[in-house]
Amino acid sequence: MNTRTVRRAQAGTTEAPWVRYTLIMLALGFMLLFLVLPLAAVFAEALRKGFGAYLEGLREPDAWSAIRLTVITALIAVPLNLVFGVAAAWCIAKYEFKGKAFLTTLVDLPFSVSPVVAGLIYVLMFGAQGWFGPWLQAHDIKIIFAVPGIVLATVFVTFPFIARELIPLMQSQGNDEEQAAIVLGATGWQTFWHVTLPNIKWGLLYGVILCNARAMGEFGAVSVVSGHIRGQTNTIPLHVEILYNEYQSVAAFAAASLLALLALVTLVIKSIAEWRNEQAEKAAIDLPPERPAPPAPGR
Asked: What pTM value is reported for the model?
C-alpha cells in the first residue's frame, strides 16, 4: 500500500483530493448564491436610501402593528407548542401503546399539508359560512380575520418542530435514568426536572428556536385567515407583501430585514446549541466508569 492510499484511508475517503475540493467549492458556491447573496441583497435594498429612510420605514404605525402582532403570535404559539412537543415526545419515546404509529403520523401532518390548505381548513371551520360560523356570530366571537385565527394557523404549522427534535433524542437516551430515579423515590415531576430535562435541554432549545423562527416568518396559512387588514391583522410577512405590491421597496425591505436578522440569530443560536449538545455527548462518552467502593475494614 503506497503513501497516497494510506493518507486517503486516514482521511476516511478514497477519492482524489481534487474531487473533495470540487465538492467543497460547489457547496460553498451554492451557499453563497442561495443564502449569503439574498440576505445581503435584503439589507442593501433596505439601506439603499440611507439609514434614516430605513428607520422611517420601521417607524410607521402599520409596521409597528405588524411587529407587535408577530411577537404576540409567537409568544402564544411557541409556549403552546413547547408543552405539546415535550408531552408528545415523552409519550412516543418512553411508552409503548396502540396507535403510537398513528400519533407519530399526526405529529408529521403539518409537514405534508400546505400552509394555504391549513388556513382554508380554519376558514371552513370558523368562517362566516363555516361549521361553527353561525354560532360564533351569534355570540360575537371573531376567529377568522382576527388574532385568534392567526394564532391557530401559526400553532398548526409549527407544532411538529419541537416534538420532532425531541423524539429521536429521547428514544436514543432510553429509560434507564428515569427508572433509576423512580426506584430511588423521585416523583414524576422530580424525575422530569432533574433527569429528563437536563438531558434534552439543548435539543429542546434547538426545537424552540426553529419553532419561533417559523412562527414569526409564516406566510401562507396566516395570509388566508388574516384578511390583510392593515394595522390590525397583518404580520411582518404580510406587511412586507403589501408594501412591495405598493412599490414601497425601501419600507418593504426594511421590514424584511427584521426577518433576515431573525434568520441570522436563529442560525447562530442553532450552531451554539448543536455545539453544546455535541460537547455534552462527548463528555458523557469520555466519562470514566465509577469504581466500586472498597470493602469495609475487617470484612
From this structure: 0.80
